[in-house]
Amino acid sequence: METLSTVDAVRARVEQWRAAGLRVAFVPTMGNLHAGHMSLLAAARYRGDRVVASIFVNPLQFGPSEDYSGYPRTLDEDQLLLQEARCDLLFAPSVADMYPHGGDQRTLIVVRGLSDILDGRFRPGHFDGVATVVAKLFGIVAPDVAVFGEKDYQQLLVVRHMTLDLALPVEIVGAPTVRAPDGLALSSRNRYLSAAERARAPVIHHSLSQAVRAIYGGSSEHAELEREGSLMLERAGMSVDYFAIRNAADLSAASAESSDLVVLTAVRLGRARLIDNLRTHRP
Ligand code: PAF
Asked: Which of 55, 130, 160 should be mutated for ligand 1, with most atoms under 8 A from CB?
């Protein structure tokens, strides 16, 4: 695997591949890779002749009181994992490579509406930072296909909308969430949990599963199910940012007639803020 850090070097390598008629698959990450990322790389390997990953902890998507400086940076271990996953090229730029004007970033991509709800309410500007960096990475890597985890469901929808609205020639693929045997979704932020908090964390998945079972059983009492979900999480000592049942297509409010649904939650547990979701269909 080759590691490149400059925009020009990545463009030159990918242009060679494209000239040879090869299909390029891309997995953008912030590093600190785990089995969840490995599943994204496997999906990319399946869809492309060449696989590119990026590792960039994007300052633009972190709020002033968030964990940007403390976010785990583990480049050496990540490179080994990427090699094992048969990644061909790692793009690991510096902040100066990605933001040449420093803090004076005047160009922003804003996916209105979708970016202000749910996680966007608690992390103002977060999805603008995500959409902007992903559009920029697409401009640099010029992939045919890019793979994102369904664990970050709202992010996946923001990226899909942005790609469609800007007519970017990139196919967006969502890959299923990878979970620990006890149900906890894998996340780099799980490492902030103490042993006691980690033992309680599977309640997140239980609360989502409880709502999904009720919906599948025919319930359309969404407000009641949201209250029960929040209560279960609070009883386990978590502070709940939201527990919401929404239309899966656009995260709008779900009605009794809605059939394709997603249940999403975000909680704070100790130092960690964890998000998770489950899709479901009303039969
Ligand atoms: O999901 C992530 O790791 C990040 O939000 C992404 C998509 C790499 C953009 O920085």
From this structure: 130
